[in-house]
């Protein structure tokens, strides 16, 4: 047992403190989607399906901004370990520029071609019409979302995570209250349906952006951002950022596109499949928050350890973390399996959609174990160790050469059931575990980055 677990109180305190706070932040963030699901599910199934399609574009934006932010976290956490706050500001400036450009491009696409974008996912005109109403408003939230996420990632890299929880909580409360008012028209407010949901989410995104800006201006004592930090551009650090971060951004972009393709495949199997997939994945996101939080916590922990010059600690840390991931996975799968029937009773959807959602959640309760191991192992340990290209290659092989072709074969050629198609979609979560176990335990992923100009002259 001593070989599996390190005996350092500080290690466990750092890992669980970061994981718990980030998980709470994520569960509240996903609660925003859940509130939309529940309220729109009670309004109409076509509204639920339309917003589910529109949210695939939001998910793509989220993956792109997260990709830019994860490169930021890997570099900044090392600078934090080395005590180099000036470089953290420069990296944040680079991440902000990239995120704003990506969000602006995506907003322009949906603003100019909303119907065309949604028609890629389904041929159900009822769902498309509802989705267009939602997109025309929600697109204005993209820039605010990007700004907030980059700043939260910068703060997370220096182990400031509570502000992310506060922001997510405020977003949830505002979104739920405004959904109640604007979707159904309570207390004399207009009944706007999906437009009301979009207005609620846009308002919440603007307010959360203001909160993080106020925090950075008045309360942050670690990084101390100023406007001037975002007016300068460090080309040497940009090259380093691109070397480390571009594989992550490309990997996340491919993953976001893959999720869109998956939704498109299920979308052409009918509105019930769209609604069931939206419900199942939303519930799964909430239940699996500790899985993805552990990956984020690991990235900071490994990066800080390497940056502070304690690379000898990496191997025992990696072995201990793998055991913790497996424990988290088993608990996640059990919770989802036991809670699925109770949760589905909250939805007012057709019997067909409910039956499919139950089947999808059963599948997810099994694959959750594999996800809990391979995601933090690859995106937490391996990426933070410096090998950022491996996850990109892994995604290319599994998602684009195995999962998507198998899924298309199931749905389009063989016309198999939505359940079999969904199993094909999630099969990589188990298959990747074997690759992850071999990769991480060879310990060939530990990389050192070139120092910045400031470090060379010190």
Automatic annotation (TrEMBL):
Q: Where would you find this protein in the cell?
A: Cell membrane
Alphabetical list of InterPro entries matching this protein: MATE_fam, MdtK-like, YsiQ
Indicate how the chain sits in the lipid bilayer.
Multi-pass membrane protein
Q: Where are the transmembrane segments?
A: 12-32, 52-73, 94-114, 134-152, 164-184, 196-216, 253-276, 282-302, 323-344, 356-375, 396-416
Top-rank lineage group of the source organism: Bacteria
Q: Which controlled-vocabulary keywords does the entry list?
A: Cell membrane, Membrane, Transmembrane, Transmembrane helix, Transport
One Pfam family linked to the record: MatE
Q: Can you name this protein?
A: MATE family efflux transporter
Protein's organism: Paenibacillus puldeungensis
């Amino acid at each position: 047992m001593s070989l599996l677990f390190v005996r350092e109180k500080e290690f466990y305190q750092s890992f669980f403190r970061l994981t718990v706070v980030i998980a709470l932040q994520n569960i509240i963030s996903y609660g925003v989607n859940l509130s939309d699901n529940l309220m729109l599910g009670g309004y109409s199934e076509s509204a639920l399906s339309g917003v589910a399609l529109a949210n695939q574009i939001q998910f793509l934006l989220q993956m792109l901004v997260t990709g830019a932010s994860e490169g930021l976290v890997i570099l900044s956490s090392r600078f934090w370990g080395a005590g180099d706050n000036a470089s953290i500001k420069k990296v944040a400036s680079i991440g902000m520029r990239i995120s704003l450009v990506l969000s602006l491009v995506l907003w322009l696409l949906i603003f100019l071609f909303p119907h065309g974008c949604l028609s890629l996912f389904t041929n159900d005109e009822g769902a498309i019409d509802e989705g267009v109403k939602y997109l025309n408003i929600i697109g204005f939230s993209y820039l605010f979302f990007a700004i907030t996420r980059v700043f939260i990632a910068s703060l997370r890299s220096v182990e400031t995570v509570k502000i992310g929880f506060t922001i997510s909580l405020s977003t949830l409360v505002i979104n739920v209250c405004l959904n109640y008012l604007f979707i159904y028209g309570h207390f004399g407010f207009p009944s706007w349906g999906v437009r009301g949901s979009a207005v609620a989410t846009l308002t919440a995104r603007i307010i959360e952006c203001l909160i993080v800006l106020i925090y950075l201006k008045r309360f942050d004592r670690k990084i101390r951002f100023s406007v001037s930090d975002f007016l300068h551009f460090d080309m040497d650090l940009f090259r380093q950022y691109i070397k480390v971060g571009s594989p992550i951004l490309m990997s996340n972009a491919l993953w976001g596109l893959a999720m869109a393709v998956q939704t498109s495949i299920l979308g052409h199997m009918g509105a019930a499949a769209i609604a069931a997939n939206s419900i199942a994945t939303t519930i799964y996101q909430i239940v699996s928050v500790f899985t993805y939080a552990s990956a984020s916590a690991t990235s900071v922990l490994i990066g800080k350890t390497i940056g502070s010059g304690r690379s000898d600690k990496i191997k025992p840390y990696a072995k201990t973390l793998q055991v913790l991931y497996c424990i988290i996975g088993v608990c996640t799968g059990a919770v989802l399996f036991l809670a699925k029937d109770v949760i589905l009773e909250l939805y007012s959807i057709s019997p067909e959609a409910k039956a499919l959602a139950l089947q999808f959640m059963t599948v997810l309760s099994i694959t959750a174990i594999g996800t809990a191991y391979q995601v933090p192992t690859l995106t937490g340990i391996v990426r933070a160790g410096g090998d950022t290209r491996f996850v990109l290659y892994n995604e290319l092989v599994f998602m684009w050469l195995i999962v998507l072709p198998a899924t298309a074969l199931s749905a389009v050629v063989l016309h198999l059931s939505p359940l079999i198609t969904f199993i094909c979609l999630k099969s990589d979560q188990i298959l990747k575990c074997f690759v992850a176990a071999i990769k991480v335990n060879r310990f060939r992923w530990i990389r050192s980055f070139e120092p910045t100009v400031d470090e060379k002259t010190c």
